[in-house]
Amino acid sequence: MNPTNVNKQYLTFTDEVREAIEQGKPIVALETTIISHGMPYPQNIEMARKVEQIIRENGAVPATIGIMDGKIKIGLNEQELEAFATTKQVEKVSRRDFPYILSSGKIGATTVAATMIGAALAGIEVFATGGIGGVHREGETTMDISADLTELAQTNVAVVCAGAKSILDIGRTLEFLETNGVPVVGYKTDEFPSFYARESGYGVDFRLDEPAQVADVLLKKWELGLNGGAVIANPVPAESALEQENIEGVIQQALNEAKEQNVTGKKVTPFLLARVKELTGGRSLDTNIALVYHNAKVAAQIAVALKAPAQ
Ligand code: PSU
Ligand code: MN
């Protein structure tokens, strides 16, 4: 089913986003899980504000998406952004959780999967985040595979990210994407980045160096009726990157702790992110913030190119 046919009565828009949609302006969606579960306060609210500013500076309109009061909010005002940054009991919402959270009236932070759903309902084609979820290490036995991957298989939104974290099994994540027909574009890179690091040891499907080239590939995909998203993998800027060798030990320790403490289901990713941050003395958080800003810039450029008249 094409999600754009679904009833839109649950969507509410800020004036800025509503006008942008009406006027056909470029828009970039942003997620709220990264605010509520991906980073501590106050860095999360600073990041949430600045990422919106970067998108505006690059010619697009930001639309941070979250669930509140039984509505899917497309664009958040300052007060709402703060609620996602400071409220203790924000639910983490993926595709599975979406209908219950909407029904309950609870505050729900949207993951990559759920933000794609909201963006598609609103007609937004480009989304900037940090990293996508993926197949977890030992996923072949635990079956812990992020719903982000199955969402990318079906929902027409391009996700600009810094690849997938090496807390995941990157090889199997790429295999899953291939099976499901999700193009993985290396933006100015031949290697799939691993979030904190610019390298992973895995290649990309193809490399593109210009926003207009990315926009053209997306248009062709969707004009052909090949439903689904695309991963636009944009490596963290070199000056903010961590070395892959250095981070591996930290990741191993975090994974061992998660196992010992029986952390499962949707708690796994936030647990690992928080431990990696502690074990790197906060360096991983600086890297995380830097790569989100870079993704926002590239996403805005792609959104602008998508709206540019065909040559
Ligand atoms: N990666 C990050 N920060 C995050 C996430 C991933 O660096 O906050 C979040 C995203 O919202 C992503 C989600 O969609 O974790 C994946 O969770 P899971 O593995 O439970 O699907
Ligand atoms: Mn999972």
TrEMBL record:
<dbReference type="InterPro" id="IPR022830">
    <property type="entry name" value="Indigdn_synthA-like"/>
</dbReference>
<dbReference type="GO" id="GO:0046872">
    <property type="term" value="F:metal ion binding"/>
</dbReference>
<dbReference type="GO" id="GO:0005737">
    <property type="term" value="C:cytoplasm"/>
</dbReference>
<dbReference type="GO" id="GO:0016798">
    <property type="term" value="F:hydrolase activity, acting on glycosyl bonds"/>
</dbReference>
<feature type="binding site">
    <location>
        <position position="144"/>
    </location>
    <ligand>
        <name>Mn(2+)</name>
    </ligand>
</feature>
<feature type="active site" description="Nucleophile">
    <location>
        <position position="165"/>
    </location>
</feature>
<feature type="binding site">
    <location>
        <begin position="146"/>
        <end position="148"/>
    </location>
    <ligand>
        <name>substrate</name>
    </ligand>
</feature>
<protein>
    <recommendedName>
        <fullName>Pseudouridine-5'-phosphate glycosidase</fullName>
        <ecNumber>4.2.1.70</ecNumber>
    </recommendedName>
</protein>
<keyword id="KW-0378">Hydrolase</keyword>
<feature type="active site" description="Proton donor">
    <location>
        <position position="31"/>
    </location>
</feature>
<keyword id="KW-0456">Lyase</keyword>
<dbReference type="GO" id="GO:0046113">
    <property type="term" value="P:nucleobase catabolic process"/>
</dbReference>
<feature type="binding site">
    <location>
        <position position="112"/>
    </location>
    <ligand>
        <name>substrate</name>
    </ligand>
</feature>
<comment type="similarity">
    <text>Belongs to the pseudouridine-5'-phosphate glycosidase family.</text>
</comment>
<keyword id="KW-0464">Manganese</keyword>
<comment type="subunit">
    <text>Homotrimer.</text>
</comment>
<dbReference type="GO" id="GO:0004730">
    <property type="term" value="F:pseudouridylate synthase activity"/>
</dbReference>
<keyword id="KW-0326">Glycosidase</keyword>
<dbReference type="Pfam" id="PF04227">
    <property type="entry name" value="Indigoidine_A"/>
</dbReference>
<keyword id="KW-0479">Metal-binding</keyword>
<dbReference type="InterPro" id="IPR007342">
    <property type="entry name" value="PsuG"/>
</dbReference>
<feature type="binding site">
    <location>
        <position position="92"/>
    </location>
    <ligand>
        <name>substrate</name>
    </ligand>
</feature>
<comment type="function">
    <text>Catalyzes the reversible cleavage of pseudouridine 5'-phosphate (PsiMP) to ribose 5-phosphate and uracil. Functions biologically in the cleavage direction, as part of a pseudouridine degradation pathway.</text>
</comment>
